[in-house]
Every structure is written in C-alpha cells, then in structure tokens.
Description:
365 residues; eight-stranded mixed β-sheet; five-stranded antiparallel β-sheet; globular
Amino acid sequence: xxxxxxxxxxxxxxxxxxxxxxxxxxxxxxxxxxxxxxxxxxxxxxxxxxxxxxxxxxxxxxxxxxxxxxxxxxxxxxxxxxxxxxxxxxxxxxxxxxxxxxxxxxxxxxxxxxxxxxxxxxxxxxxxxxxxxxxxxxxxxxxxxxxxxxxxxxxxxxxxxxxxxxxxxxxxxxxxxxxxxxxxxxxxxxxxxxxxxxxxxxxxxxxxxxxxxxxxxxxxxxxxxxxxxxxxxxxxxxxxxxxxxxxxxxxxxxxxxxxxxxxxxxxxxxxxxxxxxxxxxxxxxxxxxxxxxxxxxxxxxxxxxxxxxxxxxxxxxxxxxxxxxxxxxxxxxxxxxxxxxxxxxxxxxxxxxxxxxxxxxxxxx
Length: 365
Ligand code: SAH
C-alpha cells in the first residue's frame, strides 16, 4: 500500500504522535499501533463502532450464523472430551458484537447439561463493544462476566477467539546494514509521519540464524505470542484447558510486511489516519505453535478455516438451515461460500487448536 501524502489525515492522534516524536525523536511501531488501537480518547477500538456492515470490517460470525453455531458445537464436543465437567467456563477473547457467542449459545442449548454447567467470561477492552455484547446476550440463562484481560477461572476452561490475535501485541523489526533494529515512526522534514529503523537495536542472533540472507530493509513482524501462550498455560495449570483460535495469517513464519489499515471497508496505508483505522497484522501461526509448545501445551493444526469448518460439518449444517428457511437459502449459501472461499477467507484464515497435553486431539483438525 503506497503512502500518498495527499490522503494523509491530520487526526488528533497524528498530532499527539508528532509532539511525542518532536520530544523523543521517534515512536516505536509497537507503541504506535497500541496507541492507535487503544488510546483512551482517540484510539480506534476505544472510541468507534468498528465491526459489521456499518463498521469498518465484517467478520465471519457477522457473515454467517453457522460460524458461531459450529464453534458452539465444537465447545460441546470438547466439553464431553474433558469428561463433561460441572462447572466449566468458556472464555471468549475479543467477542466483537457478541454474535459468535449468541449463535454458539443457541447451538449449545441442545446439550442442556452443558448449559447448566456453563459460565462465560468475555475478555473485552472496548466499552462500546461491551455494551453491544450485553445487548446481544441479554436473556441468556448462563452467567456472563466481562474482563479486561485473561481471567483465571478455577474450573476447566474452553477458550475461543476469532480475529483477536491479529490485533494482539503487534510489533515490527527491520534489517539494517548494522543488524536488526526495532522499527519506529518518525517525522519527515515536511511534517509527515514515516517509518524508519529505530535507534534501538534488537537482539538478533535468532533472527540472523533464521533469515541469514535477509537484505537491508527486510521487515520481520512479531507479536507478544509468548505472553499469550503463558496466559493459556496458566489456565491449564490446575484444570484441563482447550482453545480454538481462528485468524487471518500464515502457517509458516516469513519476512515481509502485513501490517494493514482498514477504514470504511477500504485499505489504506497504516500511517494515513492514526486512531481512525483498524490496524492488523497476519498472525504468524508457526510462531504461535512454537510459543505454545514451549509452555508444554499441545497444538493441533494449524489448518485452513475451510478445512476446519468442513470437518466440523458446515455443509451439513448449511443444508439443514436452507431446508428449514427456503426464503433465505440464497443468503445462507452466499455466506457459506464466503467463509469457505478457496482464494478468500477459506484459506487466508487459519485455525489452531491448543490443549492440555492429556486431552485427545481437538475436533476440526
Ligand atoms: N471476535 C469478533 C470481533 C473481532 S475484532 C468477531 O469475530 O466478530 C477484535 C475484538 O477483540 C474486538 O472485540 C476488540 O475490542 C477485542 N480486543 C482486541 N484486542 C484486545 C485486547 N488486547 N484486550 C481485550 N480486547 C481486545
């Protein structure tokens, strides 16, 4: 995505970054992204209605109800694999508008013993989205609690997350003639924000070993996946834990930049409108599997979204839905086609299963 200075928008956050850069010389890319997403007054998630047809991007549960329903059934099978514990907690990370959980609860209602044992913990930092989730889930008989960060339920736990890790702890480094450095945002003489290598070097033995021939200018992206894996392993310390994470990403680590900005369902350069566009990166599933493996948890997959949903029976679920709602058959078919598209969401999104090592392999893998 080229950076067209003509399209640059002088947002409130852009001005704050410029002042900060005037004082400090630079702003680390990791801090820049974190502020753009979460600044209390001007951050994207903190202030905007972001998801859905009227928002900036549309996610799988907003495209088809089968997505959340299959995840609900996945939870029911995993609960049985755990020995049907009572109580059990489902933690959803980044529930968005609450659509996935609402569809999942409808599917899980077919297993009344599970519903009776269930409590739900939602991890959501955006006050606007919390409000949405509350509206969507009112009327549910299951107790629901909200948290700012990973909770620590004293029960067996099932963790689900769709499009959560693509905004989690994002950062970048860049190869320079004197080694790998963090990447920073600086200010040009003409006053526009630009990317540049940071003054800070990063430890590079590991990157040199992995990418010995990376040319100057090469970008390596990373996220705080060790921290994330540690939070899952804490959940598994005393009780069985199983998780399903689905996200846009690649199965093997590679060099290259995937940081992208989306505003009003259009891509733009990530420096164009700080705080007013969604910023995401592809999830590096190889690195996630490595980080999780190091904690002693087991990993299933990653596999593509279409393979995972296919194994969970999306086609069967779609035919039942279409037969019982003939007037909506076309819309249902269209939604499934989008989730499963071989050159679209079906393969660009990957699913990974994470579990206590004594649980059997998870469904869908
Ligand atoms: N899972 C939903 C929403 C995806 S958007 C869906 O599929 O439609 C990302 C979601 O994660 C939003 O709800 C956002 O507010 C939340 N989120 C992202 N990073 C977070 C963090 N570090 N802590 C808490 N919530 C976060």
